[in-house]
Design a protein that fits this description.
- The complex is a heterodimer.
- In chain A, 40% of the residues lie in helices and 23% in strands.
- Chain A is an alpha+beta fold.
- Chain A folds into three domains: 2-189, no CATH class; 198-264; 270-358, 2-Layer Sandwich (Gyrase A, domain 2).
- Chain A is elongated and about 115 Å long.
- By secondary structure, chain B is of the alpha+beta class.
- Chain B folds into two domains: 2-63; 88-187, Alpha-Beta Plaits (2-Layer Sandwich), CATH 3.30.70.
- The chains are: A alpha+beta, B alpha+beta.
- At the A-B interface, helix 6, helix 7, helix 8 and strand 10 of A face helix 2, helix 3, strand 3, strand 4 and strand 5 of B.
- Strand 10 (290-294) of chain A pairs antiparallel with strand 4 of chain B, so a sheet runs across the interface.
Chain lengths: 359, 191
């Protein structure tokens, strides 16, 4: 399943190096269209520590304000990621990107965020240079970049500048080489809120789409109504023709008479039910003391002593014209009354609820 | 006049703040969505109406073609004759009752039933040309006579239909039959 999903997953954007080159020899224009991953050499990192007790939206607003206030360039691009400590802010110089030909790129992200998060102190081998990092509770607290591998003194200076709960090693750790394919940072991104202009554009787009749908459905409704009107006109014309034709009017009268006769002679299957029941009773050599077929119910009274009541009930239930057979004590003398519903017609099956009652 | 109103509207729209413009666009979008939903509902209703009109027309057309067919008309006339033959035909309902009771009584007696009692109930007015009259027959029960009665009812010209049968012990212990049957009747205009 996952390999299939991965086929539809967009590849990470191409990496833009400090020199302006695109790594892995991609077509520059196509690469920029997919967005740009900036070399760590082109980015700066700053941590915003949130005051405890802030709500998510308050923290987001505070982080955005902090990021704007500490923007290191005249034209600063930034990416703000929510972390347990507050927010990790990545900056880049938009003017420099423009010089490198990537000013038009819509989606920009530093290469560091594409590597899997860590915990504690670590050094990463970047596309260009090395990055020292300190992580706490899954959030990046500090990051520093050097063109060459950090010396002990540089490492000590980095560690001293970090307000860390974990003791830093004396020497810089061995650089790790991690793939740039982690996408978890996208869920933590604090995005710029929608502007009124963007809201207006979105609402206009929705209005246009809904108007197009409304027009389509209106046209369909008008089309259906036109067809229905044509059918009704044809029906009226036919009725008029029938009314004017004495022969056809007589046929209609006769049909009505036939239908009324049919309704007047419709009957419950009283005789068929009685025949079914007596066929069963004759098999068991039982003569009922009393029997009746009333209101679509067949009822009979038999003597209980020496009579295989259970077998008779099963046989009656199996008869085609009867269903839902229920035995009851009829009188103090030990008579048993059997009641069964009459099946409405030979084609109709016994209702499952009635069928279940017998068992 | 319209030009002035339009110009005024455009001027006000031009002077609107981004927030006001977004609010206006949202209101328009809401209206458009409501229109889309309403038109979808209308289209579905119209499609149903069209389907039912098409079915009605097809049924009417089929009935018209069937009714215009000479062979069908012939068959129908024969069936209607049977209806007249199998029903009790009188000029009033009381005459129907007067005719039905002795008819049933004579059938029962011919079948061999003893202590026959016949009662005819008033018919429920069903508002059509064909009515049905309920006849209650009481008699001492024995199987051969009962079977003969059923045979006689079956062979009778009048179309009797049996609605309920009840066989139970009488006051003297002998089984007693209570039969409810119905017969169709037609009222013809007095000559």
């Amino acid at each position: 399943m996952l390999p299939l999903l991965n086929r539809f997953r967009a590849a990470p954007p191409c990496l833009l190096l400090e020199s302006g080159a695109i790594e892995e020899g991609e077509n520059y224009r196509n690469a920029l269209a997919r967005g740009v991953m900036l070399s760590r050499a082109l980015c700066r990192f700053k941590l915003f520590r949130g005051t405890p007790g802030l709500t998510r939206s308050q923290l987001a607003r505070a982080a955005r304000t902090f990021a704007e206030a500490h923007a290191p360039f005249e034209a600063t691009g930034s990416l703000i990621l929510r972390t347990p400590a507050g927010a990790a802010i990545w900056y880049w110089d938009k003017a420099q990107l423009a010089v490198l030909g990537a000013g038009e790129a819509r989606v920009v992200s530093p290469e560091s965020v594409w590597r899997a998060p860590g915990e504690g102190w670590r050094v990463l081998a970047c596309a260009e240079g090395f990055e020292a990092q300190y992580w706490e509770d899954g959030g990046l607290i500090a990051s520093s970049w050097r063109r060459e591998m950090l010396t002990r003194a540089q490492w000590a200076a980095f560690a001293l500048n970090v307000d860390a709960t974990q003791q830093a090693p004396d020497a810089p750790p061995t650089p790790q080489v991690l793939p740039r394919d982690d996408r978890s940072w996208r869920r933590a991104e604090i995005r710029t809120p929608l502007s009124w202009r963007e809201l207006e554009r979105g609402a206009i787009s929705i209005a246009l789409c809904a108007s197009a749908l409304a027009t389509f459905f209106t046209a369909q409704a008008l089309n259906h109504e036109g067809a229905a009107r044509a059918d009704r006109r044809a029906l009226d014309a036919l009725e008029e023709r029938v009314a004017e034709d004495a022969q056809l009017a007589r046929v209609r009268e006769r049909l009505t008479l036939m239908a009324e006769y049919d309704a007047a002679t419709r009957t419950p299957r009283a005789l068929a039910a009685a025949a079914d029941a007596f066929e069963v009773l004759s098999r068991f050599d039982v003569t009922p003391q009393a029997w009746a077929v009333v209101d679509e119910t067949f009822r009979l009274e038999i003597e209980a002593s020496g009579t295989p009541v259970r077998d008779i009930v099963a046989a009656l239930e199996a008869a085609p014209g009867l269903c839902g057979v229920t035995p009851e004590l009829a009188n103090a003398a030990g008579g048993i009354e059997l009641r069964a519903a009459i099946v409405a017609s030979a084609e109709v099956e016994c209702e499952p609820a009635l069928r279940g009652r017998a068992s | 006049m319209i030009d002035r109103v339009w110009a005024g509207l455009m001027e006000r729209f031009g002077a609107a703040t981004p927030r006001e413009r977004a609010g206006l666009a949202l209101a328009v979008a809401t209206g458009a969505i409501a229109m889309a939903i309403a038109s979808f509902d209308w289209a579905m209703g119209a499609a149903d109406a069209e389907r039912s009109a098409r079915i009605q027309r097809a049924e009417a057309q089929a009935a018209f073609e069937r009714d215009s067919d000479g062979a069908f008309q012939q068959r129908l006339a024969e069936d209607v004759n049977k209806v007249w033959r199998w029903s009790i035909v009188e000029t009033s309902e009381s005459l129907v009752r007067a005719q039905a009771a002795p008819l049933v009584e004579s059938l029962a007696l011919q079948a061999g039933l003893a202590n026959v009692e016949v009662a005819v109930a008033d018919s429920a007015d069903e508002g059509g040309s064909v009515g049905s009259i309920a006849i209650r027959l009481g008699a001492d029960f024995d199987w051969p006579s009962f079977m003969a009665l059923l045979e006689a009812l079956h062979n009778s010209e009048t179309s009797f239909t049996i609605h309920s049968i009840e066989v139970s012990g009488g006051a003297d212990g002998a089984p007693r039959l209570n039969l409810l049957m119905k017969a169709p009747f037609l009222l013809e205009a007095p000559q």
